[in-house]
Design goal:
The chain is an alpha/beta fold and 371 residues long. It folds into 2 domains: 176 residues, FAD/NAD(P)-binding domain; 173 residues, FAD/NAD(P)-binding domain, CATH 3.50.50.100. The strands form 8 sheets. A 5-stranded parallel sheet has the order 5-2-1-9-21, covered by helices on one side. Strands 11-18-12-13-14 form a 5-stranded parallel sheet. Helix 1 packs parallel to helix 3 and helix 1 crosses helix 9. The radius of gyration is 21 Å and the shape is globular.
Length: 371
């Protein structure tokens, strides 16, 4: 009996579990290792923040998927991988043996070592924790005695930072609280990985809605309710969102595995680790050696699902594996929190309530496929 271990319940692994439930691999025991038994679908988190979805609507029940696949659920956080002895070590001192294992554990956030960030900021990873913390802040402010605008600082001007800026503003506004929202971006522009057309639309909406943007600036330190920028300026806040881009989980480096400079495990186009044929890495936790600049975006993790599933079946059979090559562009849909969205692909852009309806339909369908 061979041991297949899936570490993490990300967008790729939920597809593999669904396939294993429909077609169980022969002579194989499957284990799923997760620190929480459910997975939050990242594409719907801005909508959750805006109050458009309940938490139940954005969650995939990994435990239920594992039961359908007759897989063993193991609760715990992986702290080390021992490829030589084919063991995975958990923080509770448990060891899990494997013949083949796959990692879909997402990323953490860059810059958490900046003084005061861990104490005073709300990081956007782990994403389930972000949802919990946002709800706590909203409850606290709703039951507080705020006589002024709520000062929200969002550090990071990528897609996540942009969506959270708009959706937080809308959420507090719907509760009767005015906000002062400021995005702090270290580069010259927001959304550098996106088309000029999308960027122009977002900047237009930010100006119309009074969202301030500070460019070419970084946070050096967080002191209580104040951030200190690298130009010496100090900004006070009531809520500090830390969305400075993805960073690799420490488990790979600490296990002596090959990683890129940000700590993401390096994988081949077959999704196997560079050094080991019986270890696979997918989603945000891995970097493809042949396409290292591929964005850490959920759409790529979703697209990897059929490839990982196929390759695990083929690995167990001893057959050749299929190569995954990331697409050159993908459909972007950014939630503005007010029932509309900005979207684009191949350099073109669009916006409107219909765009948000399209996003809603795509996202709901993905989650519903695993219910």
């Amino acid at each position: 009996m061979r041991e297949v271990v899936l570490v993490g319940g990300g967008h790729t692994h939920v597809q593999t579990l669904r396939s294993f439930a429909r077609k169980p691999p022969a002579n194989t025991k499957v284990s799923v290792v997760v620190d929480v038994p459910s997975a939050v679908y990242s594409g719907m988190v801005p909508g959750f923040v805006a109050g458009q979805y309940s938490r139940d609507e954005i969650v995939i029940d990994v435990d239920q998927l594992a039961q359908r696949a007759n897989a063993r659920m193991v609760s715990g956080r992986v702290v080390r991988v021992d490829p030589k002895n084919q063991k995975i070590l958990l923080e509770n001192a448990k060891e899990i043996s494997y013949d083949v294992a796959s990692f879909d554990i997402g990323s953490t956030v860059a810059g958490l070592d900046v003084a005061g960030v861990r104490e005073y900021a709300v990081p956007t990873r782990p994403i389930g924790q972000l949802c919990h913390q946002i709800e706590e802040v909203i409850q606290k402010i709703s039951h507080g005695n705020f006589q002024k605008s709520i000062r929200i600082l969002v550090v990071g001007g990528g897609a996540g930072g942009v969506e959270l800026s708009f959706t937080l503003q809308n959420r507090f506004g719907s509760l009767g609280f005015p906000t002062d929202v400021t995005i702090i971006e270290k580069s010259e522009e927001l959304l550098l990985d996106y088309s000029a057309s999308i960027r122009k639309r977002i900047l237009s909406h930010a100006k119309r809605r009074g969202i301030s943007i500070k460019r070419n600036l970084e946070v050096c330190e967080v002191l209580g309710g104040t951030v200190v920028l690298n130009n010496g300026q100090c900004l006070d806040f009531d809520l500090l969102i830390w969305v400075t881009g993805p960073w690799g989980q420490v488990v790979f480096k600490e296990s002596g595995l090959a990683t890129d400079r940000r700590g993401f495990v390096l994988t081949r186009s077959t999704l196997q680790f560079e050094e080991y044929d019986n270890l696979f890495g997918v989603g945000d936790c891995a970097t493809l050696t042949e396409a290292p600049s591929t964005p850490k975006a959920g759409v790529y993790a979703v697209r990897q699902g059929p490839y990982l599933t196929h390759n695990l079946y083929k690995w167990l059979e001893g057959s050749p594996l299929k190569n995954y090559h990331p697409q050159g562009d993908f459909l972007t849909l950014m939630n503005l929190g007010d029932g509309s969205a900005v979207g684009g692909k191949w350099g073109r852009s669009f916006e409107g309530r219909w765009a948000m309806k399209l996003k809603d339909r795509i996202d709901r369908k993905f989650v519903a496929d695993f219910s």
